[in-house]
Design brief:
By secondary structure, the chain is an all-alpha fold. It has a single domain, classed as Ta0600-like (de novo design (two linked rop proteins), Up-down Bundle), CATH 1.20.1440. Helix content is 77%, strand content 0%. The protein is built from 4 helices and no strands. Helix 2 runs antiparallel to helix 3 and helix 3 runs antiparallel to helix 4. The longest helix has 19 residues. It starts with a helix and ends with a helix.
Amino acid sequence: MEEKDKELTIRKCAEMLERIISDVTVPRNIRKSAETLKDELLNGEGSIAMRAASAISELEELTSDPNMPSHARTLVWSIVSELETISVEE
């Protein structure tokens, strides 16, 4: 996967995280975590693959929150799937 494609995937994931952040039916602590994750994905240190792998780990933790609505959990797993395409290549 080219660097340009990886950046596109990161931006796509950031947009999906934005949907969680702006969803008022999602608990505040989950929205705050999603916002932090989005910032780390877009502006974090390290390679794109390292940021993706780190985000995957944090997202998996986030899905274990019993207060997460099912529609948000589904979106999180979609984000994880997208990020896995990046992290497994390096």
